[in-house]
Every structure is written in structure tokens, then in C-alpha cells.
Amino acid sequence: MPDSSSRWYNPGVKQPGLKRDERLARVIDAAIDHVDEAVLITTAGLDLPGPEIVYVNDGFCRMTGYAAEEVLGKTPRILQGPKTDRAELDRLRRCLSQGKPFYGGEITNYRKDGSEYVLAWYILPMVDDAGEITHWMANQRDVTERRALEDQLRHQALHDPLTGLPNRVLLMDRLEHALKRADRREGRVAVCFMDLDDFKVVNDSLGHEAGDRLLVALAGRLEGSLRREDTLARFGGDEFVVLIEDAPDASRATGVADRIVDALREPFVVEGREVFATLSMGIVLADSPRERPEDLLRKADIAMYRAKEKDKAGYAVFDPSMNARVVERMESEGDLRRALRLGEFTVHYQPKVLLETGAIVGVEALARWVHPERGLVPPAGFIPQAEESGLIVPIGRWVLEEACRQAREWQTLHPIDPPLVVCVNISGRQFRYPGLVQDVARVLRESRLEPGSLDLEITENVLIESAQNGLPVERLRRLGAKMIIDDFGTGYSSLSYLKRLPVDFLKVDRSFVEGLGRDPKDEGIVSSVIDLARVLGMETIAEGVESVEQAERLRELGCRFAQGYLFSKPMAAEEMGELLATGARLTGSASGGGPQPDAPGGA
Ligand code: C2E
Ligand code: MG
Ligand code: MG
After folding, report:
1. Where does the pLDDT of residue 327 fall: very low under 50, low under 70, confident under 90, or very high at 90 and above?
2. I want to staple 484 with a disulfide (CB 3.0 to 4.6 A). Which of 84, 225, 300, 505 is the partner?
3. Rounded-to-10 torsion of CA 307, 425, 347, 408
4. Which contiguous run of DSSP H or E holds residue 579?
């Protein structure tokens, strides 16, 4: 041990009256008090009652809230508490008993007021001239803030900021661990992948903030219907995943799904409005503990899509046959999604005429896809896929918006009396979609189109289903829109249904119109449909009228309205606008055909 005097420049020696050691000791004391860190010196005894504190600096008092006289003579154990890491203390004891310096990790201690702080520390032995350890000097640095920040960053990295739920990263981690645990215990793990049905509608109609609020409320309800052991994570936008440990068979997971369906029966209130949220869920049970988390999630996702296809607001359990259809479906679905995003859909219009005068009284909106490679694709080329994937809902909504906006514009530019009517086709899937009535109401409001100027066409079968399930025909009519049964005669409506069903028009299918003037059976059918409509207080429209004879016959039979190539093929909005501007009457007889036909690929 070097003599301390050799390490210090000490002018005190030249000053008589002050003993060298005292002066230096005071300087060192003051210096140590200014250090930000806590310095604590104890006696070296390790036997009980343990080392005694013989010195603390001001830094220690600032850090712990103790005054020096409160701790002098006590053991450092007064700083420990329930969260103090025992293993770290054991390591410390071992180190000190061997007389070695101790470089600690981080440890939690307790201030005088009981609050916790985290410190990084080290302890050095102090030896006397003979090399004996007489004291231990502990140095402690308060890292509570840094630790809190680290914890916060870690939390942020693993949780979704909106809902506070575990995020995808944490989910994958837990899933991996759950699979390992299941392997050890020979248990099984189930995953339920959930996607909010038609979340876009909420976002688009109520705004993103409302959408966020719905997600938060939804997360709360989901959590409420799970056990504590199950992990609920937000996987992405409107996707959530539940990880269910110890699921001996699918019934644990389907039980969870049932509870979730129940929990969503009541509407949410967002921005003062009631919003019904439903989830489509896909369930998968891990067959083998060696299954990878990402494969498990992919399967659950596939099953979820199956649930969406079947009918929303339900669940499907994965089975391997689902794999095959996925590739095919994803391609066409991806195409359609892209088309929707890039605005590749357009609407063509076919005039509806009053047979008596040839006046255009309305237009039917017919969707077209302007495909970058395939050109103009008619509905037959994409509506079935859209229907299957559920994309018909957003596509149909877009058609409705566009058609109403356009009709309103034409009403202003080319006014007629009564105002031009626009007719929009609604498919089965759209009709079952719970937000349809809200959508129609919103579109009418935003386009400022009179509800009486909107006709909605559905097919017989969809309508019949509606009669059985109480679907929204009544509510749509209450909004003021009129209902048309499209392709009438090809479905299976019974007279008793027709009597009860609140519709305004029957649209005679083209297949019957075709035989008019040629086939007495068709004549009979068309004539009965017209009579039937009259008895039930409905109007009749004939579709697919291609010849003057057909038009003539229809008029004789008492049908007032018609559509068909005889008058005009469907055409782009611009052309339709020009036609309306002329105020032309379409009788089909003089010119031997209507104006220019649909663009290539059209009907
Ligand atoms: P629809 O509602 O029965 O429409 C009538 C179809 O017959 C149209 O075919 C029209 O172009 C065609 N057509 C009209 N007059 C004649 C004619 O004189 N002769 C012949 N041979 N055909 C005629 P398009 O545009 O290909 O539409 C086919 C179907 O696709 C529609 O049948 C409708 O069910 C569906 N669709 C069209 N647009 C939409 C839409 O926006 N949403 C939904 N959900 N379905 C749509
Ligand atoms: Mg139609
Ligand atoms: Mg039709």
C-alpha cells in the first residue's frame, strides 16, 4: 500500500497548525459528498449481525432519503426489500468472503419512504497497511430512470399502442413458448385468428378516430370474454389473435369463439351511434408441438377466410383441405383488392324507358372492371369472385356511391318530371351485410339524391331469404328507396311470399321476353307476371328487349317499362350524359336500334 502522501500534492504540510491528515480528510469528505453516486463504507465482518455502516456520503442520503445518523451503525440490509434480488446478494456474499471485489449487476433497493430504486453497484475491499481487509466500500449509481425508460421501450416494442394489447412480436414469442411447454406436458395449443367484418365501413363513414375507438372498445370486450391464461393480441389493423394454451381439442377454442360471438351481440356506441361489430374467426389446433408459430397462424388465417366466405360473424376450424383453395382464391382476390384500391371499376348505364312514349325514366347502373390487361371485364368476370370473397360489399358500395352521385348530377343538368331514377343491383352477400341500410342512408345523404330516385334490385332468392330472416327490405323501403325483384321468374318465389313481400317492381327475366311473339308459353308467363304484379299492386319492367315485336307485345300485355338493346345497350357515363342532354325518346323503331353500344367486352 503506497503512502497516501505520495499520491497527493499537499500544501498543508507547509502550513503550521493544521495536521496534514485532518485537512486532507476534510477535503476528501467534501469531494465525495459532491459525487452524484452513493458511497457507503461498512466494517468488514460478514458474520451476523453483518457489516456495520460506518460512513455514507451526501450522495447516499440524497439517493435513499436517510440522514447519515439514521444509518450509521446499522447493516446495509435496511436497504433491501421484497424485490431485492436474492441471487445477486448470494453472489455478493460469496465474493466478499473470498476477499474479492464485487461488480454487481442491477438490483432493486428501497428508500427510507419505502419506494423502490434500481442501482448499479460495485463493492471494493479496503485494506490496512498489513493487507487485512478492514472495510468494504460500496459505490451505488441510481439507474431507476434509465431502467424505467428501458422497460417502457421494451413495452412499446411488444405492445400495440392503441389497445395496449400484446402485439404481433410478443404473440409470436408467446406462441413459441406455449408450443414448447405443450410439448413437455403433452398438451395442445389452439389459436383463434379474428378479423373484424367490414371495419372499413366504420372507418369510411365515421372516420378513423371513431374506428380507433371501436377497436379499443372491441379489445376490451374480447378481453372480458377470455380467461386470464389466454393471450389476446392485436395482430394488425382489425385483426386480433387469441392464443389458448392447454386446449385438448377444438372445443376449448370453439367455446372461446362462442363467448366472443355472444359478447358482440350488443352494439358499441361510437360517436353517439350504435355500431354492431362482428368478427370472423378461424381456429386451428396445433397437431404437433414442432409446428412453427407462423404456420399455425397461416392456417388460422385460412380458416378465418373460410368463415368469412360462409357467412360473416362466425368461425371455422381449420382442416387441411382448406389449403388447396387458398392459392386460387388469393390470386383473384388480390386482383380485385388492387382494382378497388386503384379505382379500376367503372359504372355503365342502361336506360329504362316508358314503353308508351320511349321516354327515358331511369338508368340501371351496371358495374364494369377496366382491367389493365384484359380490357373491359363484364360483371360475370368478377362479381362471382367478389361475392365469394366478400369484396362485393366494398365494390357494391362504391357502385352505389358512384351511381347516386351521377344520378344526382344528371337530375340537375337534365331535369325531367318525375326525376330520373337510378337503379343499383344488390347481390346476396351485400344484402346479408348488416351495414347495408346504413350505407344506403349515408350515400343518399351525401349524394343528396331523393330516396324516391333510387331503386334497388335484388333477385327472388335473396328476397325470399330476406323474408325468412327479417333482412332489410322493410328498412330500405322505409328510407324511401324502391325495391325491384330482378330476373323475375328464374327464382323460387311462391305466391304466398310475393303477397307478403314489400316490393315495388317485378322485372321480367330476359329469358321470357326472348320468346315473346314466338313462344306461346313465354307469352303466357309474361302475361301472368304482368297480371300478378297488377294484382299485388306492383309495376312490371321487362328486361332484355331486343326487337320491336317484343316491345309491341309487352305494351299490349300492359307492361309499362322496358330495358334492352332495342333501346340502348349499357354505356359509359359520358355517353349516357350526352343522350340525356338530347332529351331523346327511345322507341327503337325508327332508327332500328338505340345509340352506340357498350364498349368492347360489355354485355
Ligand atoms: P342484371 O341486373 O339482370 O342486368 C342485366 C344484364 O343484361 C346486364 O348485363 C345487361 O347488360 C344485359 N342486357 C341488358 N339488355 C340486354 C339485351 O337486350 N340483351 C341481352 N342479351 N342482354 C341485355 P351485365 O351488365 O353483364 O350484368 C350482368 C349481371 O351482373 C347483372 O344482371 C347483375 O346481376 C350483375 N351486376 C351488374 N352490376 C352489378 C353491381 O354493381 N352489383 C351487383 N351486385 N351485381 C351487378
Ligand atoms: Mg339488374
Ligand atoms: Mg336482370
Report:
1. low
2. 505
3. -120
4. helix 573-582
Q: Which three cell numbers stand for residue 443?
A: 350515400
DSSP state of 159: B
**Is 367 near ligand 1, meaning CB less than 6 Å away?**
yes
**Contacts of 445 by beta carbon, 8 Å cutoff, 6+ apart:** none
What is the three-state SS of 177-230?
A: HHHHHHHHHCCCCEEEEEEECCHHHHHHHHCHHHHHHHHHHHHHHHHHCCCCCC
pLDDT (tens digit per residue) in 366-414? 999 998 888 898 898 899 889 888 899 999 999 999 999 999 999 999 9
Q: What is the pLDDT of residues 219-272, one digit of tens each?
A: 999 999 998 889 999 998 899 999 998 888 888 889 999 999 999 988 899 888
Residue 566 CA: nearest ligand 1 atom is: 18
The CB of 425 under 6 Å from ligand 1? The reply is yes
The string of DSSP letters for 31-87 reads: HHHHSSSEEEEEES--STT---EEEE-HHHHHHH---HHHHTTS-GGGG--TTS-HH
- The three-class DSSP label of residue 509 is coil
d(CA 245, CA 200): 32
The H or E element that residue 19 is part of is none
